[in-house]
Specification:
About 35% of the residues lie in helices and about 20% in strands. By secondary structure, the protein is α+β, with helices and mostly antiparallel strands. A hairpin with a 4-residue loop joins β10 (about 180) and β11 (about 185). The radius of gyration is 21 Å and the shape is globular.
Length: about 475
């Protein structure tokens, strides 16, 4: 049997799936966690070597019951926006600055002014944690880092380098850097230069379904694979998930609640409008773009509660939190949660936004906080969605939330719209880049590929039950922002 390996570099963990090459059905899957480091307030960093160690661990675990697997291609997916600086020796010069980083607020203001004068088609307003703002921060605060940088790359593309010794990327990921002209499909030279980046430091951009290189002997031995396996361009994580689920046109919209939260809508007619609270990025499919809006700490908010309650070692911590939340009524007896633990992006671009549990009383217990977090994330998604141009008929819900029926129902009631969710969490990002990898080696054709997905549809039980609480949620943030 032939296989395709899908690797998905998430914010919280590395997920690796071994896929049957013809159907992309999952034969085995494993993941390995790694931390986010916060060495100073507003900093969010990860160590690239921890990504690689997690890749080795998860890959070996995935392959442990497969004798001499015939892997014909490898696909890569990963968290967006991050900035990795590599030396001439190919070593990370410093920890990667990831999407949740908030140190570059002043640089964002600088880039916004530059963007108004630029002739490049930029995807929307810049934000902290984007590669452009992180690079500009380094230029102004740690110029030696950029001077020593031979090449920079995005998180998933660091794995490509480890696998192939080649520094390259593809449109769906570079589009999220704010260094790329999303309509011309080329680097925005004026923005790159302003951020202190030279043409020689930029990764080569290839199509998402094109082979970028082959697995080296050293990496093959580390992973337990054969050298020479083609590694295909791949995709940013969000469009990879969408492709894995079969979302290719504007009839369907994907709402993902994983570490962060995103709303994703494909389009073949991109329209760039200044100061809109959403982005227009390149898809991993040719001549296709997508509209995206993002909240920063969705599932990360629940992870915070898990760790706060000391449940890190609890084997079923998230199922436990879901069972607690299920014990509490709608509205949590007046408790409101603002999920801004790392600032916020859409529709409130505010690196200084703060999380809050509002309305605490002696009667409130962990179950109340668990449900308040789930409702607060749902309210943030509803607010972001309210600013998006869409006439999508089908709303698809993906991400870790699909393992929590109570949370799925909460979001369904808050949005007052049916939500279609996969019956099982099936590593959709790995499946998406598996499809791209199969296309890249000529084994699969997207026009004939048959998706095999089982869904559960959640229907609103009380469509208006959250309207008043949602309005309170919106007012609470506005009052907090005013008071600060």
């Amino acid at each position: 049997m032939q296989y395709i390996l899908g690797i998905d570099l998430g914010t919280s963990s590395m997920k690796v799936a071994l896929l049957e090459a013809d159907t992309l059905s999952i034969v085995a899957v494993a993941d390995a966690e790694y931390p986010i480091h916060h060495p100073q307030p507003n900093y969010a960093e990860q160590h690239p070597d921890e990504w690689w160690q997690a890749t080795v661990q998860a890959t070996r675990q995935t392959l442990q019951n497969i004798s001499q697997p015939d892997v014909i291609a490898i696909g890569l997916s990963g968290q967006m926006h991050g900035f990795v600086c590599l030396s001439k020796q190919g070593e990370p010069i410093q920890p990667a600055i990831i999407w949740a980083d908030g140190r570059s607020e002043q640089q964002v203001e600088d880039l916004m002014q530059l963007g108004q004068q630029s002739q490049s088609s930029l995807p929307g307003y810049p934000a902290t944690g984007f590669a452009a703002s992180s690079a500009l921060w380094l230029k102004q605060h740690s110029p030696k880092i950029l001077q020593e940088t031979d090449k920079w790359c995005l998180p998933k593309d660091y794995l490509r380098f480890k696998l192939t010794n080649i520094v390259a990327s593809e449109p769906s990921d570079v589009a999220s850097t704010w260094l790329y002209d999303v309509l011309e499909n080329d680097w925005a030279e004026d923005i790159c230069a302003h951020c202190g980046l030279t043409p020689e430091q930029m990764p080569t951009v290839i199509p998402s379904s094109q082979v970028s290189g082959t697995l080296t002997q050293e990496s093959a031995e580390a992973l337990g694979l054969s050298a020479g396996i083609p590694v295909v361009g791949g995709s940013a994580d969000l469009p990879a998930q969408a492709l894995g689920y079969g979302i290719q046109d504007s009839k369907s919209m994907m709402i993902t609640i994983g570490s962060g939260g995103q709303v994703f809508l494909p389009t073949e007619t991109p329209k760039i409008e200044a100061n809109k609270p959403y982005y227009v990025f390149n898809h991993n499919l040719a001549d296709t773009w997508y509209i995206q809006t993002s909240i920063l700490t969705a599932g990360l908010s629940l992870r915070w509660l898990r760790d706060f309650l000391g449940l890190q070692e609890h084997e079923n911590a998230y199922a436990h939190l879901s069972s607690l939340a299920e014990q509490v009524n709608v509205g949590v007896d007046g408790l409101l949660f603002l999920p801004y633990l790392a600032g916020e992006r859409n529709p409130n671009p505010d690196a200084n936004a703060q999380g809050m549990i509002f309305g605490l009383k002696l009667k409130h217990q962990p179950q109340h906080v668990a449900r308040a977090i789930m409702e607060g994330v749902g309210f943030a998604v509803r607010e972001a969605l309210s600013h998006m141009p869409t006439s999508a008929e089908t709303y698809v819900l993906t991400g870790g939330i699909t393992q929590s029926p109570v949370w799925c129902q909460i979001v369904t009631d808050i949005l007052a719209h049916p939500l279609q969710a996969p019956t099982q969490e099936s590593a959709w990002g790995c499946v998406g880049v598996g499809l791209l990898a199969g296309m890249g080696v000529g084994h699969l054709d997207i026009s004939t590929y048959q998706y095999q997905i089982e869904n559960t549809t959640y229907y609103p039980k009380s469509p208006d039950v959250y309207d008043d609480t949602y309005e309170q949620f919106v007012r609470l943030y506005q009052s907090m922002k005013t008071s600060n």
